[in-house]
Design a protein that fits this description.
alpha+beta, GTP Cyclohydrolase I, domain 2, five-stranded mixed beta sheet
Length: about 130
């Protein structure tokens, strides 16, 4: 297989920004809320996350050991949500952000948790939190 040349601009190599992994519309059910009916019945939540990391090693080596493993991150999020009980969206969102930023490779992450049908005339209510190592 023929190798692909590195990105080049005139006279010098191009700078590649960080990789951004997007986890989109992860739909799960959990106990979320502090009202008696919310504590008794699981509700839908929708998770969206953006995770930034330097991917230089990964695209140079083409090896999964050099990449950020988004499958591991997603599985940890799923387990935390499905086995947890949360009073507030803020707490759930902060927990998921902590999971997203566990790896030292991560320089920035943003997590949004939507709770569909939380308000009578709204599609959903959401909380977004972010963290940075920059």
């Amino acid at each position: 297989m023929k190798s692909v040349p590195r990105l080049q601009s005139i006279g010098r190599p191009a700078l590649i920004s960080e990789a951004k992994i997007n986890i989109s519309n992860l739909r799960l059910r959990t106990f979320i809320g502090f009202n008696p009916e919310e504590k008794a019945k699981q509700q839908d939540v929708i998770i969206n996350a953006d995770i930034h990391y330097r991917a230089d090693k990964a695209f140079d080596s083409d090896s999964e050991t050099d990449a950020l493993n988004y499958k591991v991150i997603t599985k940890r999020m799923i387990s935390h949500i499905e086995h947890g009980r949360f009073n507030l969206l803020e707490k759930l969102t902060a927990d998921l952000l902590a999971i997203a930023t566990e790896s030292e490779q991560v320089s920035y992450a943003e997590v949004r948790v939507d709770k569909p049908h939380a308000l009578r005339f709204a599609d959903s209510v959401s909380v977004t939190l972010s963290a940075s190592r920059r």
